[in-house]
Amino acid sequence: MSTQNTQTFDSADPHGYHTGDTHGHTIIPMSTLRAILGALLLFTFLTVFAARAEIWFAEAFNVAIPDWVNASIAMGIAVVKALLVALFFMQLKYDNPLNAIIFSSCLFCVALFLFISAYDLKTRGNTYRWTGQESSAGGTLVGIKGKPAGQNIVQWAHESYKEKIIAEQGQAAWDQLAAEHMHSNSDHGPTHNSPAASRPGQGLTPGLFESGPWAHLPTSHAGEEPSSDHDAPAAGH
Amino acid sequence: MTTMDAQSSESKQQPYWKKYTHQPHWRSKEQEFDAAKIGMWLFLVTEVLLFSGLFCAYAVFRLLYPDAFANGSHYLDWRWGTLNTVILLFSSYTVATSIHNAQMNQQIRLRINLAITMLCAIAFIAIKFTLEYIPKWSVGKRPGSWFSYPWASEPHEPIWWSIYYSATGIHATHVLIGVGLLGWLLIRSFKGHFGPKHYTAVEIVGLYWHIVDLIWIFLFPLLYLIH
Amino acid sequence: MATIDTHTSATVEHDHHDEGSYLKPKGSMLITLIDWLSTIDHKKIGVMYLFAVFFMFFLGGVAALAVRIELLEPIRQAADGTITGSNLASLFGLKDYSVAQSGNLYNRFMTLHGAIMVFMFIVPGIPASLGNFFLPLMIGAKDVAFPRLNLLSWYIYLFGSMFGVIAIILGGVDTGWTFYTPYSTTTDADHLNVVLMVLAAFILGFSSIFTGLNFVVTVHKLRAPGMGWFDMPLFVWAIYSTAIIQVLATPVIGITLLLLVFERTFNVGIFDPAMGGDPVLFQHFFWFYSHPVVYVMILPAMGIISETLTIYSRKKIFGYHAIAFSSLAIAAISFLVWGHHLFTSEGTLTATIFSALTFLVAIPTAVKVFNWVATLYKGSIVLNTPMLYTMMFLFTFLIGGLTGLPLGALSTDLHLHDSYYVVAHFHYTMFGGMVVAFLAGIHHWWPKMFGKEYSQLGSKIGFFLVFIGFNVTFFTQFFLGTQGMPRRYASYLSEFQPLHQISTIGSFVLAMGFFVHLFVFIQSLAVGKKAKPNYCGGLTLEWETSSPPIEHNFHHEPMLRHGPYEFADVVPPQCEPGEYPMPDPVENNDH
After folding, report:
1. SS in 3 state form for B89-145?
2. Cβ A141–C274 below 8 Å, yes or no?
3. C416-461 pLDDT per residue, tens
4. Which of A57, B64, B206, C475 is most enclosed, with most CB atoms within 10 A?
């Protein structure tokens, strides 16, 4: 690697410009760059695969997979990818060590900021419950312009849509629509950490992947009939 | 100097990158290059800390309202997220390659790689807007009090959308700035400004582009994959 | 270095021919003006910052006087509906102002004072003006690392300040400088004022980041040959530590204020309980920046004190390493204590941890103070204006620092928080610390910056007015606070009135002191005697060039021959400052 490096380098700069002892002028061979790209793509594939596999596993075998498994796999792979980018693409491995020190100092700050703030907001109500809890889940829209106070915005969105549909298309149309969306509106409830926590992917763009390797994957979307296999765990619940 | 042509190493006039010395307050070009990199790393630190606010808001609300966030990630299409990740990773590779090209005086490849990077950035933005923002916005999946999606099941889903739009929006702004910077590099590369002795700007913009990629490497699993 | 081409060395030699003072006009008024506005010379940028910052200090000071005028008497409404004590409204000739409207007017002036002083004066104050001017000189550099970025940061500062001024013209902001939600998300919902003010602070943050970034790189890469880290003057150490905080903390306020702008314009609800958000999150976000930034305000001040104290005691600083490292320690600890600003809104356990951590800050701060006092011991002290201000700093900053401890202790804080005690405490650290040291620094370096001496008598009169005015204004507020006067209120119980009136009288004495200083400076620029290159006998590198410095800072590349404070080795005993043997005489030029 290094010999190839010097050879190509000499042809580009016969005057021997790179005789100094500086850190900044490392030439990273193309083979390394390609290998890093390959590794990054592989890890991207792995992290997506792990996330999809977990959903499939939970739904197929109706088991609860704890949150932290999914979260730590995803974040662990993200950290590895970030390290690869920082060390090779951003040349921290070859560079003036000062730059690495600068970069890690900011990670210290980020960690401090993130953990203490998150910890405090999570535990704020431990001693005096009234300091920590929302008096009304999701807020009450008090003081928000153009919205009636008294309910949270999710309820408001649901109710006002309902009124609109009933006024425009009648009660029957609303009943049909509501039946179609029951799965998203009432099935889950506070069911985190349960098989039902693996929710149907509602955001998949409709119609784009209806054939090919993705054909069997859920393509349900707001306004479409949800396919039966994601309702299965919810029904079991 | 400004109308330097591409194959300048053969032309009689010396190319900009050979003539460039350094600004008068530096003692050498090496020192100037080193300082520019340290300065850029400090700037990258500020970028990371800027996003740390969004990551912090994400962490806090994920802890407080896990169900809303679990729903939230299922509203997103992981396939577009993956595609955008691949695009950004590839553009990171091309920009790293363009630095290699500048160091090796491969002027044509330098331009090609910079152009590919810029196209990737534009593709990222295009996918983000046409396939993610607009369809979601139009069915009422909007941040805060703009929220009007009737079928949400958790009372805190508007907060999820607030964080989604803030984080990806600020990231997309950075990508757009990156498009501008890459365009500037591309123009300068056509004037033959970069070569083995002088490629500071390519290196600096490259670092910026990598940090944009790094932020996305974390945003992608946080928003699309954790459920 | 080996890599420099021959023609490079030639251009370096060309620089020697330009020997004029950096203040020398380049031609007609217009050309000179354009030259100044497009300069990348750190000295000119420093001077431009100095005047911009002075102007902002003036604006903030006027707002402070307005606040004090309103507080001369409490606003009262008699049974027949007549309103008394609405001083600001009557000052502006506003008839039929209700109690609520008068309070609103007061809130706007109070916010104006806080926001201008913090974002446009204290934070950029010393680093951007004196730091810009003297940091490169002190380390023997020709300029800062990125001169164009330096100019850009000045323009960003102007641009940001312009946003602030527009917000004021449109009617002002009444949220307090902290922009706490939900005040900042609910007041003036139909107006742009708050958004503009928040954007102003956001933009000013960029200016701060660029300045800090520039200084870190300058200190790392541009020190004179032979200058190791422990040969640097302590002012440079202080500015370096400050710059680190600026780089690490300011982006967080950037995202906070950006989210606040989103909150107001798009109602994203992250900080809004009506939408399921959490206002305490804003406080965490805000103070993660704003506590470290307290040390952005005070660290450069400590740096100035380390300089003036040594030079005017003619004695080597006591504990150089301790002072240098305590600057870094303060910078590091500053990131661990932000929670003490929200003792009453955060969780009990978090508050306990933060309270314990807060006391850590006292250690490096006390290390500095003890070292300064030890430096004075057996020194031959020169009591000129900068030294008087240095003494005042030791006195007032000590009060400011020690009164902070009861606020850092949870139990006493529950009584004292949000009272005038807090106001008095932070004015003793911010004014008694930063402004006083700034004044010491300006008086110390004024002849070096402008080449003109100023009237010692005039500036000493100014000093005494400032000293008396400041203490009368703010010491009374400790009593007000412990008796229960809450901060940020336009009206109050009648028993507080005598103390409020004393405080207001003090504030006018203080203002008078500043006008005396202003007069002395104008007089100095107009008719001042020409200053000697080393009029105060300093040993750091800025004294090796002429006063004012030449365009390229040094006649030839400075070489370090002695440490920054080796008075005993370099200076013969009983030597007047003007007779100091110059380490490297300016007249002795190669040409």
Report:
1. HHHHHHHHHHHHHHHHCCHHHHHHHHHHHHHHHHHHHHHHHHHHHHHHHHCCCCCHH
2. yes
3. 999 999 999 999 999 999 999 999 999 999 999 999 999 999 999 9
4. B206
Q: B46–C11: do the CB atoms touch at under 8 Å? A: no
Contacting residues for C231 by C-beta, under 8 A, at least 6 apart: C560, C563, C564
Q: How confident is the model at residue A235 (pLDDT cuts 50, 70, 90)?
A: very low
Give the residue from C310, B189, C398, B155 showing the smallest Cα distance to A190: B155
Question: Which chain A residue has its CA at the smallest distance from B105's CA?
Answer: A12
Summarised one tens digit per residue, pLDDT across range C285-342 is 999 999 999 999 999 999 999 999 999 998 899 999 999 999 999 999 999 999 999 9
Task: Name the helix (H) or strand (E) containing B10.
Answer: none
Tokens 């069915």 found at:
B139
Structure tokens at C306: 């380390």
Nearest chain B Cα distance for residue C142, angstroms: 5
Kindly list the residues from chain B whose CB atom is less than 8 angstroms away from the CB atom of residue A152: 155
* Spatial distance between the Cα atoms of C199 and C184, rounded to a whole number of angstroms: 13
> In which region does residue C269 sit, left (phi positive, over 0), alpha (psi from -120 to 50) or beta (all else)?
left
Burial class (CB in 10 A: 0-12, 13-18, 19+), C381: middle
Residue from A109, A116, A120, A153 to probe the interface with C (highest C Cβ count within 10 Å): A120
Cβ-Cβ contacts under 8 Å, B61 against chain C: 270, 278
Dist CA C518 CA C54 (whole Å)? 10
Q: How far is B60 from chain A (nearest CA, A)?
A: 5
What the block records as the tokens of A104 is: 């890690």
Cα(C588)–Cα(A122) distance, integer angstroms? 69
Which residues in chain A are contacts of C355 at CB distance < 8 A?
Answer: none
Chain A residue numbers with beta carbons less than 8 Å from the beta carbon of B37 are 24, 95-96, 99
Sorted by where each begins, the domain ranges of chain A are 1-14+22-98, 138-180, 192-237
- The dihedral built from the CA positions of residue A176, A179, A180 and A185, taken in this order, carries a sign that is positive
Q: Does CATH place domain B28-225 in 3.90.70.10? A: no
Alpha-carbon distance of C134 to C141, in angstroms, equals: 10
Which residue is listed with tokens 């001040």? C301
SS3 C3: coil
- B64 near A CB under 8 A: yes
CA atoms within 13 A on the CB side of A87: 11
- Digit-coded pLDDT (tens) for A138-154: 888 887 878 888 888 88
In this complex, is the C-beta atom of B79 within 8 Å of any C-beta atom belonging to chain A? yes
Q: Which chain B residue shows the shortest CA-CA distance from A192?
A: B67
- ipTM of this complex > 0.85? yes
Touching check for C221 and chain B: CB below 8 Å? Answer: yes
Going from the N-terminus, what domains does chain C have, and what CATH number goes with each? 23-579 (1.20.210.10)
Interface contacts A/C by beta carbons within 8 Å: 80
The residues, ordered by sequence, that sit 6+ positions from C268 with a Cβ below 8 Å of its Cβ are B143, B144, B162, B165, B166, C259, C262, C275
Q: Among C262, C387, C243, C260, which Cα is nearest to C315's?
A: C387
| Look-up of token digits 């974040």 | A75
Non-local CB neighbours of C313 within 8 Å, separated by 6+ positions: C375, C376, C379, C380, C381, C382
Contact B193, B4 (CB under 8 A): yes
Prediction pTM value? 0.88
Q: Which residues of B touch A204 (CB under 8 A)?
A: 77, 79
Largest CA distance in chain B: 72
B-chain residues near C7 (CB < 8 A) = 21
CB contact burial C515-546 (16+ within 10 A = b; e otherwise): ebbeebbeebeeebeebbbbebbbbbbbbbbb
Closest chain A residue to C353, measured at CA? A116
